[in-house]
Every structure is written in C-alpha cells, then in structure tokens.
Amino acid sequence: xxxxxxxxxxxxxxxxxxxxxxxxxxxxxxxxxxxxxxxxxxxxxxxxxxxxxxxxxxxxxxxxxxxxxxxxxxxxxxxxxxxxxxxxxxxxxxxxxxxxxxxxxxxxxxxxxxxxxxxxxxxxxxxxxxxxxxxxxxxxxxxxxxxxxxxxxxxxxxxxxxxxxxxxxxxxxxxxxxxxxxxxxxxxxxxxxxxxxxxxxxxxxxxxxxxxxxxxxxxxxxxxxxxxxxxxxxxxxxxxxxxxxxxxxxxxxxxxxxxxxxxxxxxxxxxxxxxxxxxxxxxxxxxxxxxxxxxxxxxxxxxxxxxxxxxxxxxxxxxxxxxxxxxxxxxxxxxxxxxxxxxxxxxxxxxxxxxxxxxxxxxxxxxxxxxxxxxxxxxxxxxxxxxxxxxxxxxxxxxxxxxxxxxxxxxxxxxxxxxxxxxxxxxxxxxxxxxxxxxxxxxxxxxxxxxxxxxxxxxxxxxxxxxxxxxxxxxxxxxxxxxxxxxxxxxxxxxxxxxxxxxxxxxxxxxxxxxxxxxxxxxxxxxxxxxxxxxxxxxxxx
Length: 542
Fold this sequence. Notes:
- By secondary structure, this protein is of the alpha/beta class.
- The protein folds into 4 domains: 33-177, 3-Layer(aba) Sandwich (Rossmann fold), CATH 3.40.50; 184-356, Rossmann fold (3-Layer(aba) Sandwich), CATH 3.40.50; 363-435, Helicase, Ruva Protein, domain 3, CATH 1.10.8; 451-511, Orthogonal Bundle (Arc Repressor Mutant, subunit A), CATH 1.10.10.
- The chain contains 22 helices and 14 strands.
- A 5-stranded parallel sheet has the order 2-1-3-4-5, sandwiched between helices. Strands 7-8-11-6-12 form a 5-stranded parallel sheet. Strands 9-10 form a two-stranded antiparallel ribbon.
- β9 and β10 form a beta hairpin.
- The longest helix is centred in the N-terminal third of the chain and has 29 residues, at 152-180.
- The radius of gyration is 34 Å and the shape is elongated.
C-alpha cells in the first residue's frame, strides 16, 4: 500500500479551495484601507517579531502578517529573538515553544525581564493539545496562545486583539500621566520661600504612608497639595478619593465613608462600598475635617487605630490599607480646648503637618500665578492675550486676596472672558478690586496725615483682626515676638485714653481679644511652643 507523503508537523492545515489568495494560503479578507482593522489604528505602525526555527513556517507567518499590513521581522531562534527585543521597537512577539536553542517559555521569561521601556506582548504557538504548556505561558505573561494545527485567520485575529489591547494600555497610561501632570512639583506655582518649604515637605512625605494634616485658609490649595503627595508617592497607581466632610450631612456621611450592607436601613436595597474601600491601596482625602461631628470623630478614630472598617449592617469588620490625608481651615488646637474636636483623633491625623501660607504672605508668587492662570484661561477661550497691562497689574498687587489663590484664579478667568484687546486692563477686573485698596496703608496714612506711630498701630490692628485676635499668628505675620506684640497692644490701649471699662472691653472684642480667653490663649501659646507644627495657617498653592 502506498504511503502518504510526509508532511511537516509544524505547518498548519491548508484549507481546500482558498478564495481571494494565490497559492495554498487560506482565504483571509483583504486589508482595509491604510492597513486598518475595524476601528483600529493603522497596522503599519506596529512591528511584529516572528521567532521560529522552521524556515517554511517562519516564511508563512511572515508573509501572512505582512499581507495584513504589519511590519514583520523574523528570528531563527530564541537567542536571536531576545537580542532583537532588547534593541526596542517591537510591539508583539509570535514565537513557537519548541526550538533547539532556547525553549519558548524560557524566552518568554527573558522578554518579560528585558531592559526596554515597554516590553512587547507575546503570543505563544504550542503543540496540539498542549494545554498545560499554554497555561504555563499565560502565567509567565503571555498575552495569548495558539495550539496547532491552527487556521491562519485565527492567528491574525489573535494578533489584532493583542495589539489592540496594547494600544489601550498605552492610552490608559497616557491618560494617567495627564491626570498626574498638574500635580508634579514643577507644575505647582510657588517661588516664595514659604512655598519652597512646602515643596520640601511634600517630597519628604511622598515616600511614606503616614497620615498628613494640611492646614490653611480657604482657597489656598489644600486639595492640590494632597493630590501632589498622592501622585508623587508609591500609591500613585491606586485611587485618590476626596470627600468634603462639611458638604455631606452626618446621617449620610457615615454610610459614604464606611459603606453599608443590604437591609442595613430602609433604602439599603443592595450592598454599597464606602469611600475607604474605594480608596483601597491609595489615598483618602478628608477635606474640612474640623466639621466632623463628635460621633463620626469617634468612629474615624477607631478606623485609624485598628486599620479596619465595619460597614453599616456588617457582621464583622474589614481590613483596609488606606493613607489618610486631612485638611482644615479651622484651628483644631482651639477646637480641642473648646471640646469640639477630639485630642486623640487630632494626633492620629496630625502625624505630619503641612501649613499652606495665605496668598498675601507669599508676594513673590502673585505675578507668576497671574501669568499661569492667564495662559490657561486664554488657551481655553481661544483668545490670544499677551499679558496683563501695567495698570491692571497694579490693581492686582494692591488687593489683599482674602479668597487666596481660588479668588485670584476666578478674577483672571473673568478678566479673560471680558477682555476684547490684547491685554487685560483694569476695566476687565471686578469693580470691587478697582475701588478698594485695602493694602495701600501708605496712601491711607498720607490722606489722613497720620504719624508713623499711628500707621504702625493701624497695621497691627488690621493684622490682629485678620487673624481673629490670635496673638501668636499675628506676631508671626508681623515679625515680632509675642512679648513685643503684647507691649505694643498695651500701648495702643493706653493711647486710647483708658476710657470706660465697657469701652475697653468693646475694643478688645473688636480685636478678637476677650478677657475670658486670655488664659486659654496663653495655654495655646505654650502648646505651640512645645509643638511647632501645630500652628494653623492656610496653604493652597496652584
């Protein structure tokens, strides 16, 4: 009996009566214009490396993928294939498992560890029925596997799928970089010594997972700093979840933070994850932590102490791995003295503290911030604005910016929207800014024919009022020690001629200095001396 002709076991089966192709290749749909697949990027952008020791099989795979519009290179074995991958520029490797010089699985291990920025995806071709080998390949990082014998259409579909997924991963990585870009140190505006100190703290804090407390006035950029800490830390690939404790009612905030189980309350028709679970492995930002109710303070304290949460209606707690960054514009030390904020929670949150200075205290940053906001607003609006005019600059410099960076950003965006010329003019700025000159004390003194001593007194009174009567913060702003400030305030009272007890009391209240609070304030001053980080100023860079 005649024996059938010998065939190469590595070659795939050849379908009968191929259509649309010459020779013995199976029918494959012709490439779409520009070599594109349905809704895909041009195939010609991708480089595929075929690693196969059998010359006939290698040529077949190369011809097939080249006809589909891909750039195809070949290697006759595992070691030449690894050498080509290490040069870079390969998007996908199609390799056989059994090769004389290097097993395909060993080659896969080498590719995964190759010193290239974006290692290629790998498709492994295995012998018929070798499922165990296929599973090993996937565990080692192979994107897909094809078992012999196979149809060439199957190969093309697997290649398309692998490269589509690679493209999606690159797009996700690009979007992630875009999300993180505003929070890199070089994109946060701050040339002043105060902000440089903040940047130094962020760098030192980013490598750890300890809890951080950010203090500062409203509008200073506390959330921006929190995001900078997160995106410059090892947790950057995990979620950053922000919650404003002052914006959510207490009865809802607990379920938002900790989640709940179905049936925990009337409307709990299904389980819901809380924000702690959403932030697993990442960072939870608790803004306006000073507004947290006493009941929630106690529950948050337990979470921070035990590193676990108990959703509403849950039978047992759940372990969590979350870094907590909190922020407030309130004086939490004063809150502790008043009994409105738990001392033990304060020290859990305040492992490390960052204080953001108010915009009025970082004069070097005002114009760079203006330029930054002007460029961004002009780009968004499509207007070709060159700069601020000199008169507009003078108006901006004369303002005290009680709303800090947030107020400045809103003013610039408004000015860009109203501006019809190449430069921002005073007419494009809010009328309130053009009319008032709260920081022009010199002009005020000249108009009133004030003495230097009277000017000094007026300045001290203004600072005391802005600091809510807190002598410690006022002394820091004035560059005075507390004893000197106390002496000058006493001189002020004496200069006012003594007056009645009621008049002196009203004056103290105007300054925020109530007689009953002096003892507590001095205690707070002593506490501040022991804990220099407990000062509560505002921070919010851009």
